[in-house]
Design brief:
209 residues; alpha/beta; Rossmann fold; 39% helix; binds S-adenosylmethionine
């Protein structure tokens, strides 16, 4: 784990903050997610078998580390990060992860290129509430169509932003895309506090759209 500097900020936190200041809408976070939020969002990653786990928007890698811990060398872990600087740093720290520098919008094609039919679990770190309606819908459609029928999709939302129009729109799209959507408890030990959406059973209508 990176050590805090004299400013109290570790190097990964400083890198993410720098990327946020350069490109707030694409980065969507001022600080990496905490261990506690990482554990909550990665809970559907099974601790047995050979699952295909996809991670969208890994950033500096808090969810990456938790997924790797849960997989313990089993299955496949594909991560898709659009920011080349963040992706480069992450692949150096996690050589066992299949890290693609690209957009989550291309997820179905990325799985097909690897001969994988679908993902068993998709863990998303994407900043949904920062996206335009069209971009948000396209990314969610790509994730839903890449998920196995019995698969699980998780993502998180910041508590202070949950009533923003873009966050409400995302929540409605989730409900339209999955038969089951459950919001977890607030994780107070995160900057800022956040909660997880656990979604299961993609609706056929959402996959065919
Ligand atoms: C809110 S940060 C989350 C980072 C990390 N998962 C965490 O929880 O600390 C969102 C990340 O998604 C990435 N991202 C944004 N749009 C993306 C896209 N279309 N495809 C893949 N990654 C994207 C950003 O570059 C950033 O690293």
């Amino acid at each position: 784990m990176a050590r805090p500097s004299v400013t109290g900020m570790n190097s990964e936190s400083a890198v993410l903050l720098g990327q946020f200041l350069r490109s707030p809408a694409a980065t969507g976070a001022v600080a990496p997610s905490s261990r506690r939020l990482s554990r909550a969002v990665c809970a559907p990653v099974p601790e047995g078998g050979e699952p295909v786990v996809v991670e969208l928007g890994p950033g500096t890698g808090p969810f990456t580390a938790e997924i790797q811990r849960r997989l313990a060398g089993r299955g496949r872990h594909l991560a898709v990060e659009i920011n080349p600087l963040l992706a480069g740093r992450l692949s150096a720290r996690h050589p066992g992860v299949d890290l693609v520098v690209g957009s989550a919008a291309d997820l179905p094609a990325l799985l097909a290129e690897r001969g994988m039919a679908a993902a068993d679990v998709i863990v998303s770190g994407l900043p949904w509430a920062a996206f335009s309606p069209g971009h948000q819908a396209g990314l969610l459609r790509a994730a839903v169509s890449a998920l196995a029928p019995g698969g699980a999709f998780t993502t998180f939302s910041y508590v202070h932003a949950r009533a923003l129009p873009a966050a409400l729109r995302f929540r409605r799209s989730l409900t339209a895309s999955f038969e089951e959507v459950v919001a977890g408890r607030t994780v107070w030990r995160n900057l800022p506090p956040a909660f997880v959406y656990h979604a299961r059973r993609p609706r056929a209508s959402a996959v065919l759209r």
